[in-house]
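Risk mitigation, structural track. In case the binding assays with pyridoxal-5'-phosphate fail to produce interpretable data, a predicted complex structure has been prepared as a fallback.
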Amino acid sequence: MSYLMQLVCPKCSTSYPAGRVYGLCPCGSPLLATYDLKEAAPGFRPESLAGRPETMWRYREVLPVRDPSNIISLGEGFTPLVRAQRLGRHLGLDRLYIKEEAANPTGSFKARGLCAAVSMARELGIRKLAIPSAGNAAGALAAYAAHAGLESWIFMPEDTPRANIREAEVFGAHVTLVPGLITDCGRIVAERKDAEGWFDVSTLKEPYRIEGKKTMGFELAEQFAWELPDVILYPTGGGTGLIGMWKAFREMEKLGWIGPARPRMVSVQSAGCAPIVRAFEKGLRQAEPWQNARTIASGLRVPRAIGDFLMLEAIYESRGTAVAVDDQELIGAIRLCGNLEGIFLCPEGAACLPALRRLVEQGWISAGERVVMFNTASGLKYLDVLQ
Ligand SMILES: *Cc1c(COP(=O)(O)O)cnc(C)c1O
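Fallback model:
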């Protein structure tokens, strides 16, 4: 089953035994799960995956749940990798692919992370979960908590897309709408969690959401027959997907599944909230908080991310880049991709398209390169904000 070994702080290198409840490292950094990959390698091979369930749990050896009866699954992961030939031709690319994360339960890739986190909560005996969310994480937490029979408390900005609010309510969560941003919601959870007995499932404040998200990296490798793409465009908020995929590539290399070649990682943000792009442009290792964050891409409205240094590290190490896109551009991109591919991008995923156009025009991406852009949720969840 799982080869989970211990949790390690990427900042101060302290390690902690698995099997206990953790939040952040006392030094303030997120903790990352490590696996005994040497021990796993002989028996865990690409061939081992044949016939396994078409969910992210096909990679269970490198996921943290030790007792399979604790896995709370709604069928998350192993989403389609769609060849976008017409859109590619339009942009001057021969090999463009869309990783279609709308196919996940609750219609967004947040299902992956929260599936892992809720499964681990069950394994560790946690019963009350709280989350600050820009929207999709709330829906996903509420769904998995309901499926597990656990309680969830959700804090979202009051202008979150209606679909996110409705789904959390339908799943029986305790929903509070907050006048402010996700960072304000995070403050409320932090202030009240001890008195209320909540476990804080904020992005990277618990160690397992990223483990669910990293399966996107395993899937890309498997779907491309163990040869990674040249470029990955990722709409970045808290950055778990970016950090998670980067971690997955390292784990797969240690397992002997791939070589040292890596995709160039492109972080895409909205011009109305682009702390990572600004930090990248200044060559910084950490991002300054963004003031007056504003964008209809609610998942990208994250003015301060606790994993900023890990995101920037992945971008620099991969010789990637970071691009900011105006809301007007991304709204146009939703229609373009809908027309050419029959895929209804969410505003966050749509941000990848103008970024891609710019990078092709600048010659940063060449026509023959294999490029993957992430559509992180279904456009159908945003009907009210897209009007
Ligand atoms: C949360 C979210 C993002 C940002 O993901 P991170 O991994 O936190 O950077 C992007 N798109 C959508 C639709 C989201 O819900």
